[in-house]
Amino acid sequence: MSVAHGEQVRVLEEEHGQVGERSLNWWGMVFFIASEALIFANLIAAYLYLEIRNNNDIWQLPHSNLFLPLLNTAILLGSSVSVHFAGTGIRKGNVRQLIIGLSVTIFLGACFLVGLAYEWTSLIADEHFSISSSIFGSAFFTLTGFHGLHVTIGAIFLAVCLVRATKGHFSKQQHFAVQAAEMYWHFVDVVWLFVVTLVYFVPLFR
Amino acid sequence: MVSQEQKDHVEQQVVDEQEEDAGVSSPDTTPTPDSALSDDKQESQPEAATTGGQQQAVRTGKRRGRARGRLVNAEEVMPKPSLWPLAVAFSIAFVLFGVIAGLVVLVIGVILLVASIVGWILERR
Amino acid sequence: MATSTIGERATTIDVRRKRFSETYIGEWITTTDHKQLGLMYLITGFFFFVVGGMEALLIRTQLALPNGKVLDPDTYNQIFTMHGTTMIFLFVIPVLSGFGNYIVPLMIGARDMAYPRMNAFGFWLLLFGGIFMQSSFLFGQAPNGGWFMYAPLSELAAGHAFQATPHMNADFWLLGTTLLGISSITGSLNFVVTVFKLRAPGMSINRMPLFTWMILVMSFLLLFALPSLTVASVLLLLDRHMGAHFYQYGSGGDPLLWQHLFWSFGHPEVYILILPAFGIVSEILPVFSRKPIFGYTFIAWSGVAIGFLSFTVWAHHMFAVGLPSIAQAFFATSTTLIAIPTAVKIFNWLATIWGGKIRFNAPMLFALGFIAMFLIGGLNGAALAVVPFDYQITDSYFVVAHIHYVLFGGTALAVFAGIYYWFPKFTGKLMDDRLAKWHFWVTFIGLNLTFFPMHLMGILGMPRRVYTYPANLGWNDLNAMASVGAFIIGVGVILFMINIIKSLKAGQAAGDDPWDAYTLEWDTTSPPKKYNFLEIPVVRSRRPFYDKKYPDIADWKNVIKH
Ligand code: HEM
Ligand SMILES: [Cu+2]
């Protein structure tokens, strides 16, 4: 199936997309995120299904402390701003802005994860509330854990971008990895809004 | 993860030569898919006039009646072979096998996975 | 077909050492070429078809006579579970994506898929996932909970009282399908973007060949259905290994949650398995009837309608679990609705053949067989959608008859049709038509002999998946018939393999366009050059290659311009 050296084919300009159109990879990323979003949709559906089935007990965390989740929400929303800042930077060709934005975002992401870990450990150690202690525990740790996993993946993705940015891999024209990481990060943030509402705020209204 | 591929596409779309502006795709082409084109001249002529210029962002591409373009080496338009897809796939399978088989396998799998993903990303395309 | 401007430049003599990717093995394992990967998918798929077929023969041997003792009960469970799993995840999906990989870029006039490396990645994941799954036999712990792995059967400890699946059986299934799921996700991303972005100039979305349409719909279904399976599997794994309680009734969990999650994947999945088969048939029928397809728009959009509807019917697999009757009414209605777009397709196909100059070559025979068999499968499906009837025959052999008429009589026949149709393109050789007809008739008789009696067994009350049965229930003759039929199908498969080998070795040269076909894949050499097209074709109607061959009566000259 190999091709003789020097054989030539004709290439159309539009074969690789028009300038100004979304790139192939952008579309790929969109559908990938859509599929990921459905993972969360299913998880949330399962959460609600089980919550409704256990209608008698209210699914509220033992410590019912809203400070940490609110702080974490603020952190994540802030990180969405900073990652947008990074993206705008590289779209203008400003690598410095990119590096600053990415660093801040990764830092905020790490803070979020520390906050989550703190909440988890205090729940498990102090309240004896764990994945196996009750069905609510199973649902709570799975949902927040899945989201935490995605934050971790997103942060690693951003970190890879950061390393590459310091090595000068990105320019105004070529920075798809950054764009993808940015999309992914925004996605993770939006998911958090659903998670936090479902887990912390909905029980308040019951 | 596929940023290198992206680069490739970007590079290729940037190059845009305007050879053969005369509007004839190639002198006396033997029947090719566009052999019927001569009948279509009137329809496509105005379009050709615009696309010959620099603003190819104008989306005439899909309806244009003529296959113009430049000649390149066949190897250039074909995807390059790569061993990394196999490596990443193997490591993922290994990691999941580690879930069953125990921590040692799992750790080896994770190391393999990280290494092969790095390889994939860094591969020059 | 080289034009005067395009030729081979004088080859500069190149004395460097061969790269790894140019050695024989290296070329296979490093390839990112959609055609080679397509073939690899097909070969892998057929390999697993043989594996799954052996398992089926074991099942039928065990059930051939009452009180059979060919397998022990636990092995029997593993065998029927792996039969279903293998056929669905390792035969049908790979083979269909193999066709998709090979044919779609050619059909839409592209030089490759959108992401060649991802494409290779998907293939390797499939292969390793398959090996992973089958390797469970080596441990003597193959999955044994049925292809839908119902909780709490698949739980490690269901409640505190008993251990349901204490060994790794279910883990192999859960992790294996996860691997295959990732593979399918990458594959469908690739298809979607390829079809949306890489079509040749002029190939608007409603000039796309129907096979491409169906692959597109299939890809969307995979993208949006697989997450349910992933979530279901993760929750079950957490139950099994982290002590969670999702599916444990006693602790506030619910086994029905598994069923809901699984079937909201599972029903779209069955349409994933059939839509590309619709596509294959919609390509073959017009070519062998010498007419354009009838009702192109209807076939395309009924496929889309099926895609949407397939997300709304999942609980028809759960009529017997005690859903509220309003839910049962809803799901019975939506299930019946889905029969409408399906019937639309059948009528369009019939109208395509109607009045055509039919050539009964092997691809056409298989395609016609497909219509007949799928019709039966669809009709008894509609019967299953009637709730009171379903109460009686759910989980009986009637359901087994249904799934095999749609999947074997439907998808598998279409897959064979596709092989006979495109083999000349893949290899440049024709297949032996006489042997192919033998293959068809043997398979056709075998499949009806095997699966038709299953309707009756079901109505007579034989539950599916039973290990064996006593002699006095009136099921003996029917079971014996089914087992004989299964071996006849086996003979058919052997004929097919002989034909493949024979044609590869000594098949007649096919030329580039042996069927006088309509779509762009035939506008390449056989097998196509690695870059597919010297010059990207320009499309002006739904049958671009026909236009090119018959410029005087080209489709686009007709009054109706699409
Ligand atoms: C005309 C459209 C169809 C209707 C109305 C229909 C209806 C049904 C119903 C109601 C069931 C549940 C039976 C039960 O478990 O009690 C069922 C099972 C099934 N159907 Fe269909 N079906 C249709 C087409 C298809 C197609 C096209 C396929 C696949 C190619 C398919 C594959 C299956 C499979 C695999 C099962 C069994 C799942 C299992 O329990 O193992 N069906 N169908
Ligand atoms: Cu169904």
From TrEMBL, chain A:
Q: Report the EC code(s) recorded for this entry.
A: 7.1.1.9
Molecular-function GO terms, alphabetical:
cytochrome-c oxidase activity
Q: Which Pfam families match?
A: COX3 (PF00510)
TM ranges: 26-50, 66-86, 98-118, 138-163, 184-205
Q: Which membrane topology term applies here?
A: Multi-pass membrane protein
Extract the InterPro entries matched here.
Cyt_c/ubiquinol_Oxase_su3, Cyt_c_oxidase-like_su3, Cyt_c_oxidase_su3-like_sf, Cyt_c_oxidase_su3_a-hlx
Keyword vocabulary terms for this entry: Cell membrane, Membrane, Translocase, Transmembrane, Transmembrane helix
Q: Which GO BP terms apply?
A: aerobic electron transport chain
Top EC class, one word? translocase
- A GO-annotated cellular component: plasma membrane
Q: Give compartment(s).
A: Cell membrane
Heme-copper oxidase subunit III family profile domain: from which residue to which, for each copy?
27-204
**Which family does the entry's similarity section mention?**
Belongs to the cytochrome c oxidase subunit 3 family.
Q: What is this protein called?
A: cytochrome-c oxidase
Taxonomic lineage is: Bacteria, Bacillati, Chloroflexota, Ktedonobacteria, Ktedonobacterales
TrEMBL record, chain B:
Q: Where is the secretion signal located?
A: none
Bias kind Basic and acidic residues: ranges? 1-11
Can you name a GO cellular component term?
plasma membrane
A GO biological process of this protein is: electron transport chain
Q: Tell whether Transmembrane helix is among the UniProt keywords.
A: yes
- Tell me the compartments it is located in: Cell membrane
A GO term for molecular function: cytochrome-c oxidase activity
Recorded topology in the membrane: Multi-pass membrane protein
Coiled-coil spans in chain: none
Keyword Cell membrane part of the UniProt annotation: yes
Q: Where is the composition biased (Basic residues)?
A: 60-69
Instruction: List every stretch annotated Disordered.
Output: 1-69
Q: Which reaction does it catalyse?
A: 4 Fe(II)-[cytochrome c] + O2 + 8 H(+)(in) = 4 Fe(III)-[cytochrome c] + 2 H2O + 4 H(+)(out)
Keyword annotations for this protein? Cell membrane, Membrane, Transmembrane, Transmembrane helix
Q: Where is the composition biased (Polar residues)?
A: 26-35, 45-58
Task: Please list every transmembrane segment annotated in the UniProt record, as residue ranges.
Answer: 89-122
Q: Could you tell me which Pfam families the record lists for this protein?
A: Cyt_c_ox_IV
Quote the EC number: 7.1.1.9
**Family membership noted in the UniProt record:** Belongs to the cytochrome c oxidase bacterial subunit CtaF family.
Q: What does this protein do?
A: Part of cytochrome c oxidase, its function is unknown.
User: What's the protein name?
Assistant: cytochrome-c oxidase
Q: Which organism is it from?
A: Dictyobacter arantiisoli
UniProtKB/TrEMBL annotation, chain C:
Keywords of the record, alphabetical order, are: Cell membrane, Copper, Electron transport, Heme, Iron, Membrane, Metal-binding, Respiratory chain, Translocase, Transmembrane, Transmembrane helix, Transport
Location of the Cytochrome oxidase subunit I profile domain: 28-540
| The name this protein goes by in its record | Cytochrome c oxidase subunit 1
Instruction: Write down the chemical reaction(s) this protein catalyses.
Output: 4 Fe(II)-[cytochrome c] + O2 + 8 H(+)(in) = 4 Fe(III)-[cytochrome c] + 2 H2O + 4 H(+)(out)
Enzyme Commission number(s) = 7.1.1.9
Classification of source organism: Bacteria, Bacillati, Chloroflexota, Ktedonobacteria, Ktedonobacterales
Q: What class of enzyme is it?
A: translocase
Pathway participation: Energy metabolism; oxidative phosphorylation
